[in-house]
Amino acid sequence: MGNMSLRQDQRGAVAVLVAFALVPMLLAAGVAIDFARGQQFKAALQGTVDAAALAGASAYVDGSSAGAAVTAATNSLAAGQANLPASIGPVTATKTAAPTTTSGGSPAYGVTVTASATVATTLLSMFTANGSVVVSASATAINPAVVVSAGIGNFSSSAWDTNTIYWYIVPSDGSLPTLSAANIIYSNATGFNNSNPPVPAAQASQRIGFALRNITGGNQSYATNQYGGAQGSAHIFYSHLGIPSKDAYPSVSMNCSVQTAQVTNPNNPPAVPSQGVCLTAAPANAAPSCADLAGQTLKFFWNDMGGGTDDKDYNDAQYTMSCAPSGGNGSGPTGVVLTQ
User: Fold this and answer.
1) Residues 146-160: what's their mean pLDDT?
2) Span 199-210, mean pLDDT?
3) Which segments within the chain are labelled E, that is strand?
């Protein structure tokens, strides 16, 4: 009997030791599991915050749009929260917008978004009072000032019409700009000096549109053109419209005005993509932002729709568009970017 009792006591002691040993093992397992979950949720929250900062900076285009930038960041954050894991509790966030500069010295507008949320723990909830941990994330995005280069070095035109190219910032509501607020970069008008076209400046997220102002027979008189344009009448084509000639010739339901092509080799510029035809709509990049261009150069090909018969040759105005940082040392981003 004595030996049996001793063995039972020993087994009981071992069980107690095992039970005590399980506590740190469970704690270690809980730490590992909850740390992994916390990192997963932090990455999800960081992605949401990054997107909100970028959305806010994209809307921050001038000194008066700080409020619009904060609203855009707020809306993006709200939309992103719907995609966060259900285990993440309510997100609290702050959003700020202020002028800043890029690393290259270019002026810029910046938006910072900081957010935190609670994440329910699993095994750790057995050892902590509130059963949750806090995860945080922060991001800053900038919208830098950029210089838009319109290269007209290879311009050639034999048009009888007077054609003038303007650049403009596309209105946020997609409406037509006033040409009084636009800037001339080229004209084939007699006596016009094209040697030093103005350098467009904008924020990286702002869409740049081009307008072709056509005057029927402005260089050499002829009869009414095939679209009803009388001698001396003016017609304006806007590149940001789906049908660029819509305002000039409402009866024309196709794009007979502009085509674009990416320049992959500056020493071998692209030829006109399609001649003798009209397209269903303007190219998607006919009014791009510098952020959209992502470092590429575009060539524009315009057809002024003039003449007794429209030849649709798209050689009445040709030029390139590219973007560069506005800082004095020529470095820095040309798109909306995260800085932290």
Assistant:
1) 74
2) 90
3) 92-101, 107-120, 132-151, 162-169, 183-187, 201-203, 208-215, 234-238, 258-263, 297-302, 317-325, 337-338
